[in-house]
Structure formats: structure tokens, C-alpha cells
Amino acid sequence: MVAQDLRAAHPLPPRPLHSLLIPIPMVCFLGTLATDLAYWATAEMMWADASAWLLAVGLLFGLLAIIAMIIDALGRRLSLMRGPVWLYSICGVLILVLSFFNALVHSRDAWTSVVPTGLVLSSVVVVLVLLSGWIRRVLIFRRDPGAER
After folding, report:
1. Cα–Cα dist 92/66, whole Å
2. What angle do CA 86, 88, 89 make, to 5 degrees?
3. How far apart are CA 137 and CA 142, in angstroms?
4. Quick check: 99 and 62 in contact, CB under 8 A?
5. Whole-angstrom distance, CA of residue 126 vs CA of residue 132
6. Is the separation of the CB atoms in 56 and 28 below 8 Å?
7. Is the bond leading into 16 cis (omega within 30 degrees of zero)?
8. d(C-alpha 134, C-alpha 136), whole Å
9. Distance separating alpha carbons of residues 114 and 126, to the nearest angstrom
């Protein structure tokens, strides 16, 4: 029998570390908008508390994802992304900054902790999360000029 080399002829580059952490803050910030809407509709304080906890977890894992992205950039693991990675990075930092201010707004008491400022900030963050996901997809699946299909 002939021993076969099971490795691919062109191995894939190592997967970026931050891509493992990105879904956690994304889901937390989407959940924050959902719980803010639930609080707006019902005025049940449980939803405002859930929003505050989701923001805290999203900020924690978002910060870890930014640190992992810096490690990826220094270790040249962002080779899967072709194009202006800085735009993706700025979008991620902007999401974290707005979410931090949203957490400060959610630390207030009662109705003013969510309506209207918290709800607006949560909506803007969700739009930025969707934009960031779209930018990431474009950067990963961008074809080089002249590449064969």
C-alpha cells in the first residue's frame, strides 16, 4: 500500500481568532434591541434588566473580539480578508463605543433607562452590526481582479 498524504495541496490559511468571538456580541446586541422593544411595549422592568445584562455580556465579548482581532492583525491571520480591513475595524470599535454609552443609559432607573435614548442607541447598534457583517462578508468573498470563476 502507498501512504497517501492527506493534507491539501493548497492548505487554507489559519482561521482568524476573532471570528470565533464575533457572534456572541452580535447576538447580545440584537437581543438588547429585542428586550428594549419588549420593555417599551410592556413597561415590565425585567426586560430593562435583561437589556442591561445583554449589554454587559456583549461589551465583554466585544472587547475580547477586538483584542483577538489585534492579535490576528499582528499574526497576519487576516489574510482571508481582501481589501480595506480598517473599515471593518472602525465599524467594530464604533459598535463597542455606542454600546458602552447605551450601557450607561441603561443604568438609569425606570422608563428613562430605555425609552427613547436606549431604544435609539440599540437600533443604531443593530444597524451597525448588520453593516459590519456585510463588510466582513464582502472582504472575505471578494474576488481579485482577473481571477477565474
Report:
1. 8
2. 60
3. 8
4. yes
5. 10
6. no
7. no
8. 5
9. 15
**What does the alpha-carbon distance between residue 93 and residue 91 come to, in Å, rounded to a whole number?**
6
Cβ pair 102, 121 in contact under 8 A: yes
The 8-class DSSP code of residue 12 comes to P
Cα–Cα distance measured from residue 128 to residue 12, given in angstroms and rounded to the nearest whole number: 29
Q: Please, where are the H alpha helices in the chain?
A: 18-21, 23-42, 45-74, 85-106, 117-141
Tens of each residue's pLDDT in the chain, 149 residues: 555 555 555 555 567 788 899 999 999 999 999 999 999 999 999 999 999 999 999 999 999 999 998 888 888 776 667 777 888 889 999 999 999 999 999 998 878 889 999 999 999 999 999 999 999 888 877 765 555 54
The residue among 70, 60, 123 whose CA lies nearest residue 96 is 60
Could you give the CA distance from residue 23 to residue 114 in angstroms, rounded to a whole number?
Answer: 24
pTM equals 0.83
The identity of residue 103, as a single letter, is A
Q: The cell 443604531 sits on which residue?
A: 124
All three cell numbers of 50, joined, read 435583561
Residue with cell 428586550: 35
C-alpha cell at 109: 432607573
